[in-house]
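Example 232, ligand zinc ion.
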Amino acid sequence: MTTACTLCPRDAADGSRICPRHADELRGWLAEIPAQARLLEEEFVAPGGGPAQGRLGGTGRAHAPAPVDLRVLTLLGPGHADPTSLDDDGTIPIAVLLGAWAGHIAYHYPAATRDRHGTARIQPCAQARPRHGESITGWCAWHRAYLPFTLTLAAAADYHRALDHLVHRLRALTHTSPRITPRAAPCPDCEAFALITVDGRWGITCDACGHHLEPNAYDAHAAHILQTVAAG
Ligand SMILES: [Zn+2]
Ligand SMILES: [Zn+2]
């Protein structure tokens, strides 16, 4: 049975709460967040880093450009957040936000265990443990692995909104966004010449109507258009 995406009027993929386009966005963001965090580190935290020093104008003032650097240090730093209040007011460190969401996801993830009598039981995972450590990269790898399950949760739309917010905050700080490439064929749904590929994302999306295509579906569609044009 198909249900509507909890973020837009399109159909959600089978068993999932959001549509393939919004799922693809999540996949892209989980790959982008570690890269954005590395950029932040390089630009603002590394000694003699570029933009932060540029803003100082090389005048060698004794005080650091506090507003930007403190914000960045907080974002990149360790810390703890109350998992019951996932409201991201812009002060929660990235790893903490990702860890709190992992806790929520793990709680709903059915883990098969055996009790001391050898009886198999299904119960929630007690804790999320990223295999590559509780770093931003480690947590993003964990979230990518659990994504198919996360998409089935009632909180999938909130999860999308939280990562959307985080990615856009990071992009504003690093002034870096993934490259967008326009595609030649018109949208098979609304016929606008608005199909785009975003670096790091698998599918192709219509910027006008939100229609989403897998790459091989796009190739077949483009080949068909070409044939139609060639046939006059
Ligand atoms: Zn959607
Ligand atoms: Zn379209």
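Summary: The first strand starts at residue 110 and ends at 114.
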